[in-house]
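hey so i finally got around to running the thing on that chain from the lab meeting. sorry it took forever, my laptop kept dying and i had to restart like 3 times. anyway pasting the input first so we r on the same page abt which one it is
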Amino acid sequence: MYINSGYLNNSLIDFKDKSRPLVVGSCGTYRLINHPKLPTWRPRGRIDYQLLYIAAGKAHFYFKENEDTIVKAGNMVLYRPKEMQRYIYYVEDQTEVYWVHFTGSQVKQILKKYNFPSTGHIIPSGASPRYQKLFLRLIQELQLCRPHYEEFLSILLTQIFILTDRYSRGTKVTNKYAHNEIETAVRYFNEHYNDSINIAEYAESKNMSTSWFIRNFKLYTGSTPLNYILNIRISNAQSLLENTKYNITEIAAITGYDNPLYFSRLFKKQTGLSPSEYRKQSNI
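ok and heres what got predicted. didnt touch it at all, straight out
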């Protein structure tokens, strides 16, 4: 099981803070690999808010007692203060989840501004590596505690709210067949992003035309398949540059590039910095 998380002031205790409009208390990610399951059970909930993003696979939530609601990749789940929380991740579901806890004096107004529902829990968000990138940056800021990081945390979380709102206002895949096929593709690309993937061959293997697949994939994720895979690769490369001591050649290979020079050119095109410049900046 892969776990990475960060906590404000290194405290695992949930809290209320009305001194600022939006306060991030903690953020993390889980990815089950060998561990059979990961259950969470909070009968009385927490005193803060929690937002979970299902990035890959699916998760089992019990919003009502003994009623299993399956939430698939491309959705978020919002828990409000003092709401019962019960959910389980299973290894066979290949679950990857990101979560953030937050509080503040203006949370209700902020959520309303970005069209989060006042009741219910499931929020369609679309599947995008941009979410992973923002969650990973939240974790990093909580771990490093650099100057003004608390303000930056609220900015990063607000960007997640904005992306979710943009998705809700945009065109979505409504055909059930298309929805299922694109969800399958998103899971496959997340699991095999560092392999050589030919989009036309993938579409043909699923008995889809390339143009139909690309069009519906973009409706669902807001990105073409190639850009989606590229964003996953660059996002994971950023995480490796920030959190490991692998050299550039090793990181290029891990993220799917045999040629480190080509990887470096792509990385700079996407981020504005070379890999070495990015690593240096992230360690300031």
